[in-house]
């Protein structure tokens, strides 16, 4: 057994808990999880059956934690987990799983398969079997401090641009602000309009907010790769920043996995409850709407539909807010089939979009989203996750579908009356 | 009267006809075209510079420019190369130039903003936070109006 | 061994052995699974009515949105044979008498024609499910020896019991003895195969519901 396999096996043994033991013991091989997984439904290849993605872990569980399994191992009747096997499973555990969680929602015996895949990734990454595409992100997290290599000067450059464009100041390191706004690398890099939208919304709501120079980003490559130590690095930085600035709430940006990492895994990674709340920007907007702090003007009149980011809706519990917000600024909002809790994944979350070898599979899996859109026939598609946006656009482009994709926060901000929100530059 | 601030800049752009907006927008984008060098973007800019484009021609370059835009996103988790990233905003600006919109939408302003972000990316790659793209754009607009 | 000795054995030592192994097996398995425990969740909970472990224990008995349409045989076949088994085991008067002999408890049963009807439905459903497991790519791919074995372990008691009541194939005494033997085999293997889901389904659904309920998601 190589050193890294040994490490991987050790990590896998550590993460197996009562829930996982219960799940493996309950699986009756009914195959319903496959019917819920877009990687199976769109390819017809049974190897993408969710529970099958965990086979090495199941064997390990049996061999290490059951009386019968240990007996079998003793008399040489069990098949050990090997390096080669883990290498073979890399495609199943990373390329064909976005941690979307539909499988966990349908298993009749109650297995939380996505919970298990997340844990399995810990062993995969410890044994060196994480995909190259995400490994780079992990390295950059340690060396540069950001999975995508975004440094403070870059953030400041975008801040400056937004200040000019919108005429609103972007606060940095303001102690005692109510909200600490996190950004995802994706927004800093691909969608700088998001920051401007935040500024407009906060200004109208009259809320104090700030960015933090030592903790501006929420993208958590550790979560994607399945390396808790790495995930902890990013979360710790955010916790330190939030506590130093004494904020009440940290806002997680329009990025699905960043929310999961911070909101649900964060406290467990750092080993203590947070002294601040964590909310997704859509949750905050929902609250502002309820409290009458969000006043918008005018409506979009074209036919709009909403793609629920998996980590926000099904895995995060934010399902109603985006709908109320859509109805606030859209006259013609229609739901796609399976909208809400059971919506289908864009196919690119959980680090999947960073894996080049997985692109063909992703595009094939996209047929599911395509079929939803073919049914609802929208003019535009709205969502609330920067990664979903790009994955959706790529899929739409590939299938020659002319449906622009927009972010919900930006759409809301566009309807905030400019007179109330901005002062023009130079006057 | 020279343009000195964004309020004036935006109003003057809005007052142009769509065809004029496309032309001045293309001038803005040409300043940062080197970050992209994509032939589809070039085709879009060349088309925008012409005063007489048909809807059909517009649709073709529009689609190509959009494809270029979608291809130039940085994937989540990948290392950011700010110079390459600037290409995304060049593409976005070019898409604005040839967007098939009805009269009344300020596409030149959109293009100008995207060009500024492209310049910001260049600044970010050099760990610099400042640039003077806005002033350069004012000068281009004034020059265009005086012709 | 003649048929009477066979019957006496399965009713006596055989039953004792089977029940002992069953009870020991259940206890050991439950212990080795649930003693692993789980870490406390330190993240702030989002409490939403209807989203909890116990809710999911019940709710998960129903198909998730859209799933019944794409896998009708799995669901409908599954419902029929599980409910059928429950009716046969717990509402057939001779079985109730058996439980009474073992525990002292008894309860009203169903008319035997109804149980007979339920048994036929169960047998048919189980055959359909078997056919489905052989023909559906995913099920076939996932299936191991244990899947076929446990199917037989579950099917044979039902079949042999029905045949005994109907006096088919073998003389009654022998058929009955065979039936009891099949039940004993089922008991002996249940804790050590996927059939143990009969016990762990509650824990699994509960954990799933609790973890998601913590996030305010009703699963």
List the helices and strands and how they pair.
The complex is a heterotrimer of chains A (427), B (147) and C (219).
Chain A: H1 3-15, H2 18-26, H3 32-36, H4 38-41, H5 55-65, H6 67-74, H7 83-95, H8 102-106, H9 113-126, H10 132-143, H11 152-166, E1 179-181, H12 185-190, H13 193-205, E2 209-210, H14 221-225, H15 228-244, E3 249-252, H16 256-270, E4 277-280, H17 281-290, E5 304-307, H18 321-329, H19 359-376, E6 380-383, H20 386-398, E7 405-407, H21 408-414, H22 418-421
Parallel strand pairs in A: 1-2, 1-3, 3-4, 5-6, 6-7
Helix pairs in contact in A: 1-9, 5-6, 7-9, 11-13, 13-21, 15-16, 17-18, 19-20
Chain B: H1 6-14, H2 18-30, H3 39-49, H4 55-71, H5 82-97, H6 107-125, H7 133-146
Helix pairs in contact in B: 2-3, 2-5, 2-6, 3-4, 3-5, 4-5, 5-6
Chain C: H1 3-11, H2 13-34, H3 53-59, H4 67-70, H5 72-91, H6 93-103, H7 112-135, H8 137-142, H9 145-165, H10 172-189, H11 197-214
Helix pairs in contact in C: 1-2, 1-10, 2-10, 3-11, 5-7, 7-9, 9-10
Give the low-confidence spans of chain C.
Answer: none
Tally of individual helices of chain A? 22
Total number of helical segments of chain C?
Answer: 11
- Elements of chain C, N to C (H/E): HHHHHHHHHHH
Q: Strand tally of chain C, please?
A: 0
General shape of chain A: globular
Supply database-style keywords.
heterotrimer, A: 427 residues, mainly alpha, Fumarate Reductase Iron-sulfur Protein, Chain B, domain 2, Rossmann fold, 3-stranded parallel beta sheet, 22 helices, 53% helix, 6% strand, C: 219 residues, Fumarate Reductase Cytochrome B subunit, 73% helix, globular
Model description:
The complex is a heterotrimer of chains A (427), B (147) and C (219). Chain A is mainly α and 427 residues long. Chain A is 53% helix and 6% strand. In chain B, helix 2 packs across helix 3, helix 3 runs parallel beside helix 5 and helix 5 packs antiparallel against helix 6. Chain B starts with 5 loop residues before the first helix and ends with a helix. In chain B, 52% of the residues are buried. In chain C, helix 1 runs parallel beside helix 2, helix 1 runs parallel beside helix 10 and helix 2 packs parallel to helix 10. Chain C is 73% helix and 0% strand. The longest helix of chain C is centred in the middle third of the chain and has 24 residues. Chains in contact: A-B, A-C.
């Amino acid at each position: 057994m190589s050193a890294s396999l040994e490490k991987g096996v050790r990590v896998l043994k550590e993460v197996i808990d009562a829930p996982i033991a219960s799940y493996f013991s309950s699986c009756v091989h009914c195959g319903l999880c496959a019917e819920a997984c877009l990687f199976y439904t769109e390819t017809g290849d049974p190897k993408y059956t969710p529970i099958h993605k965990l086979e090495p872990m199941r064997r390990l569980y049996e061999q290490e934690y059951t009386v019968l399994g240990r007996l079998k191992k003793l008399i040489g009747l069990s098949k050990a987990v090997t390096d080669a096997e883990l290498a073979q499973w890399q495609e199943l555990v990373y390329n064909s799983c976005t941690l979307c969680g539909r499988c966990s929602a349908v298993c009749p015996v109650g297995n939380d398969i996505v919970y298990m895949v997340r844990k399995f990734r810990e062993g995969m990454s410890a044994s060196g079997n994480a995909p190259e595409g995400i490994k780079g992100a992990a390295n950059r997290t340690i060396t540069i401090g950001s999975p995508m290599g975004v440094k403070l000067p870059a953030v400041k450059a975008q801040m400056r641009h937004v200040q000019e464009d919108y005429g609103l100041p972007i606060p940095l390191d303001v102690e005692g602000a109510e909200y600490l706004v996190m950004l995802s690398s994706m927004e800093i890099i691909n969608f700088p309009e998001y920051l401007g939208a935040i500024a407009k919304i906060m200004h109208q709501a009259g809320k104090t907010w700030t960015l933090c120079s030592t903790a501006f980003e929420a993208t958590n490559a550790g979560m994607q790769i399945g390396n808790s130590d790495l995930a902890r690095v990013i979360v710790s930085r955010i916790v330190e920043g939030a506590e130093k600035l004494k904020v009440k709430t940290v806002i997680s940006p329009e990025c699905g996995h960043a929310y999961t990492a911070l909101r649900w895994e964060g406290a467990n990674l750092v080993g203590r409850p947070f002294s601040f709340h964590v909310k997704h920007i859509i949750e905050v907007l929902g609250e502002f709407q309820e409290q009458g702090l969000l006043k918008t003007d005018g409506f979009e009149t074209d036919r709009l539909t909403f793609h629920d980011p998996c980590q926000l809706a099904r895995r995060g519990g934010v399902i109603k807010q985006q709908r109320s917000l859509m109805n606030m600024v859209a006259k013609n909002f229609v739901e796609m089939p399976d909208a809400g809790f059971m919506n289908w994944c864009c196919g690119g979350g959980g680090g999947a979009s960073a894996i080049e070898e997985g692109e063909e599979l992703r595009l094939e899996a996209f047929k599911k989203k395509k079929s939803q859109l073919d049914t609802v026939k929208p003019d535009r598609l709205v969502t609330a996750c920067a990664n979903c946006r790009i994955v959706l656009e790529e899929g739409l482009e590939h299938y020659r579908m002319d449906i622009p994709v927009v972010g919900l926060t930006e759409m809301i901000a566009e309807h905030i009356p400019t007179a109330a929100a901005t002062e023009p530059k130079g006057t | 009267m020279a343009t000195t601030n964004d309020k004036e800049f935006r109003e003057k752009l809005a007052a142009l006809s769509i065809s004029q907006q496309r032309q001045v927008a293309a001038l803005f984008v040409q300043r940062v075209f080197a970050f992209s060098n994509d032939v589809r973007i070039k085709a879009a800019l060349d088309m925008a510079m012409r005063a007489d484009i048909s809807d059909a021609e517009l649709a073709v370059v529009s689609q190509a420019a959009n494809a270029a835009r979608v291809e130039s996103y940085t994937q989540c988790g990948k290392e950011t190369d700010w110079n390459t990233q600037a290409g995304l905003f060049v593409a976005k600006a070019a898409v604005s130039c040839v967007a098939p919109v009805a009269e009344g939408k300020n596409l030149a302003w959109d293009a100008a903003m995207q060009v500024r972000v492209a310049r910001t990316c260049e600044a970010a790659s050099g760990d610099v936070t400042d640039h003077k793209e806005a002033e350069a754009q004012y000068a281009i607009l004034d020059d265009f109006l005086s012709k | 061994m003649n048929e009477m000795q066979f019957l006496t054995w399965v009713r006596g030592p055989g039953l004792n052995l089977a029940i002992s192994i069953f009870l020991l097996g259940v206890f050991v398995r439950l212990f080795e699974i649930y003693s692993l425990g789980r870490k406390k969740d330190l993240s702030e909970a989002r409490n939403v009515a209807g989203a909890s472990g116990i809710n999911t224990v019940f709710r998960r008995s129903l198909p998730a949105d859209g799933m019944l349409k794409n896998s009708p045989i799995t669901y409908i076949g599954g419902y029929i044979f599980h409910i059928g088994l429950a009716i046969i085991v717990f509402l057939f008067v001779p079985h109730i008498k058996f439980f009474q002999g073992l525990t002292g408890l008894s309860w009203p049963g169903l008319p035997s024609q109804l149980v007979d009807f339920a048994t036929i439905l169960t047998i048919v459903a189980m055959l359909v499910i078997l056919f489905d497991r052989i023909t559906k790519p995913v099920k076939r791919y996932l299936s191991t020896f244990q899947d076929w074995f446990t199917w037989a372990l579950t099917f044979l008691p039902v079949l042999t019991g029905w045949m005994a009541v109907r006096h088919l194939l073998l003389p009654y005494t022998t058929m009955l003895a065979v039936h009891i033997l099949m039940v004993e085999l089922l008991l002996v293997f249940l804790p050590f195969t996927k059939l143990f889901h009969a016990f762990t389904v509650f824990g699994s659904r509960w954990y799933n519901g609790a973890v998601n309920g913590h996030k305010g998601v009703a699963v």
